[in-house]
Design a protein that fits this description.
single chain, 256 residues, 77% helix, 0% strand
């Protein structure tokens, strides 16, 4: 692992975090392409720099969340399933899922097919919830359950939560915003918990690379997030589904 690779992974994270293509999966595949040796630090790096991209959302939505206690409570409720399963499955996620390209490839392939089928069948109802503030606690909790699927690299946190929300009768606009807001406590907790467990073992050089990747992912995401949010709200997931399938097939044939 070098600073140059840390910057590349930061760019990949910043661009892919808000798209239904799995930023974690793309970082794992990118690490394979760059032939970065698998290590505990690399797994932690791929988890922690996601918070850098999420901070772009914090900047855009901090006032909205902090001035609306109901919305704040809804986000907390949506976070509960991930918090519980994240602690229970931490070792499995870190030691088995992270860094496993085969899991990523299959997740991208199956997820891409699901995205395409879902979009072909889904029709937004006229009475769909239009604003994120109108999401009910029960709906938030179920969306949180869908988010747990993204603990499998390649699934995509945004794809899982948005599909879950659309299935519950939320509008594309409402669930896209809630998906991004739900990422804030999720990635803060994931990063904090991982650093608590492994940060003490990092060298000064590794802390520097982590800081570099974190900063780059933040800057790139900040430049992309507004455009990405608007794009996801107004377009279907079919192009992303096709992209996921193509990446999975190409990686399978050429790399694996």
């Amino acid at each position: 692992m070098t600073f140059f690779y840390a910057i590349i992974l930061g760019i990949v994270e910043g661009v892919s975090e808000f798209l239904p293509i799995s930023s974690t999966g793309h970082m794992i595949l990118t690490s394979d392409l760059l032939k970065i040796p698998s290590s505990d630090f690399l797994s932690s790096f791929e988890i922690c720099i996601q918070l850098g991209a999420i901070l772009a959302v914090v900047i855009l939505y901090a006032k909205k969340v902090l001035t609306n206690l109901k919305l704040f409570g809804t986000i907390v409720i949506g976070f509960i399933p991930t918090a519980i399963l994240g602690v229970l499955l931490y070792k499995t996620i870190k030691n088995i899922f992270m860094g496993n390209s085969m899991i990523v490839v299959w997740s991208l392939l199956i997820g891409g097919i699901i995205l395409i089928i879902f979009e072909l069948l889904h029709k937004e109802k006229p009475n769909a919830i239009q604003e994120v503030e109108m999401i009910k606690p029960k709906q938030a909790f179920v969306v949180g359950l869908f988010q747990c699927l993204s603990m499998i690299p390649g699934v995509s946190r945004s794809a899982a939560t948005i599909i879950g929300g659309l299935s519950l009768g939320l509008s594309r606009k409402a669930i896209v915003e809630f998906s991004f807001l739900l990422a804030i406590p999720t990635m803060c907790a994931a990063t904090g918990y991982d650093l608590l467990k492994t940060g003490i073992n990092f060298s000064h050089n590794e802390w520097g690379m982590l800081a570099a990747g974190f900063a780059v992912s933040f800057v790139v995401a900040l430049a992309c997030v507004k455009w990405l949010i608007k794009f996801v709200q107004k377009h279907t997931f079919i192009p992303f589904g096709i992209y996921r399938i193509a990446v999975a097939i190409i990686f399978w044939l050429v790399i694996l």
